[in-house]
Design a protein that fits this description.
The structure is a homodimer. The first copy, chain A, has about 260 residues and is an all-alpha fold. Chain A has a single domain (about 15-245), classed as Heme oxygenase-like (Heme Oxygenase, Chain A, Up-down Bundle), CATH 1.20.910.10. In chain A, about 65% of the residues lie in helices and about 0% in strands. In chain A, helix 3 (about 50-75) packs parallel to helix 7 (about 130-145), helix 4 packs parallel to helix 5 and helix 9 packs antiparallel against helix 10 (about 185-205). Chain A is globular. The N and C termini of chain A lie far apart (about 55 Å). In chain A, about 45% of the residues are buried. Residues about 1-5 of chain A have low confidence and may be disordered. At the A-B interface, helix 7 and helix 11 of A face helix 7 and helix 11 of B.
């Protein structure tokens, strides 16, 4: 048995910031979860209400942990100016009061889908695959270099496309979805590009050696796998073959 | 939408050590990965050589990280007598030289399946779901109490049954599997019960309050989900629906 697929060896020479950006975009083109079949099923209206519920329930845990992830990054920044920029992400997600912020807007979606709010917030019913992937993301930004931690946020470069397709697709195809329940995504259409621009500028400025550039690209590959893996788990449990792991959300336990 | 499935609330009163053991065994009966459909497919000879390769390749990462997990637990033990018992797990996995120990015996299996050894050891081709689940296990034993860390090893109580079925099933059904390549499991038939007895005695002795007993049971539930989730990822990527995530082992890249 002989390998035809070569391992990815680091480049020996550094590339220009523009070339680095091009390579990061190429990673997104090949590995961002807009290519995952579950994404198409969701947007095309091919899922039933319970499958959409499973998605929203699991994705809640990701949303809820994003400020924890960002606070971890913030705790590693020794530069006040950098912290001033980064803290906005936490403010966006947590809002100024309990009825505000990105996490609250996600709850509007799970509310709109008829999920029990205490059950959602307990995260008792999420898939182990969701939990492990999200925890891997938080651990990554704690354990790797600050440069890699910032680079792992660069999937937001690719978010606007997926959000536009998702909102229009879900509104057109699901009678149980309203524009109001999807308002999380409205905000993200402006927040994600702002955040992505900041992180991309930082990475282009600070990843100057070949080793740093490789680390940055691998951080983005890692983050793509965090997102992709969550859709793998959802697709496996609730679509094909449809085998729900012990203890995870099972629509049979929640009669209408 | 109203819940019919109640959340699992902790018991208000502690139970006897015997009753705790019975509850731990009941968790295994319901959640250990002997119930996973991938386990049946593997043992029944329903997988092709490449699917068995994918299993062995991914499981290698779990095997390779077990001594890291056990060293993490060892580092948290302040009692020399306890450390003397626990360190044997690391010795079993790492052996006395490069050609010995449990990890080396797992490599005998991946060698026997024709997998490139450097590729296996690089873990470059494992599924993100495998990586995240195994890392979750290592993080669990670092972050939780020592009691919970020890309790998370209790899946070994259920290992002998699965190993016996696996060895006989694989030998009977796969012409590309020999007794010699499965020698990892021979050793585990004696090591796993010894280790499980020690951990079970420890847990029965030290989990005396209702809170501790609940924590111990939840640690075992967690560990069952670590094992189960790995088979979910394998089943999804290589059996049904058979969607291999970007970058993971793809038999098409490895012509015979």
């Amino acid at each position: 048995m002989t390998a035809t697929a070569a391992f990815d060896y680091p480049e020996s020479a550094a590339v220009s910031p523009q070339e680095l950006e091009a390579r990061l975009r190429a990673i997104g083109d090949a590995r961002y979860h807009h290519l995952h079949p579950f994404h198409d099923l969701l947007n095309a209206g091919s899922l039933d209400r319970n499958q959409v519920r499973a998605w929203a329930l699991n994705r809640y845990y990701y949303q809820a942990m994003i400020p924890v992830k960002d606070a971890t990054i913030l705790s590693r920044m020794v530069d006040a100016s950098l912290r001033r920029s980064w803290r906005q992400r936490i403010i966006d997600h947590d809002g100024e009061a309990d009825d505000q912020g990105g996490i609250r807007r996600w709850i509007a979606l799970t509310d709109g889908l008829g999920l029990d709010r205490a059950y959602v917030e307990s995260t008792a019913g999420i898939l182990p695959g969701t939990r492990f992937a999200v925890e891997a993301y938080v651990n990554f930004v704690r354990e790797r270099t600050l440069l890699e931690a910032i680079a792992s946020s660069l999937t937001e470069m690719f978010a606007p496309t997926i959000i536009a397709a998702r909102v229009s697709g879900m509104l057109a195809n699901y009678p149980f979805i309203s524009k109001d329940t999807l308002r999380y995504f409205d905000k993200r259409l402006t927040q994600a590009p702002r955040d992505a621009d900041f992180a991309l500028d930082y990475v282009k400025q600070h990843a100057v050696t070949a080793e740093q550039q490789t680390a940055v690209m691998e951080a983005l590959v890692f983050k793509c796998s965090v997102l992709w893996s969550q859709l793998d788990s959802l697709h496996y449990a609730y679509v094909s073959p449809g085998l729900i792991p012990p203890g995870a959300y099972d629509p049979k336990d929640w009669p209408e």
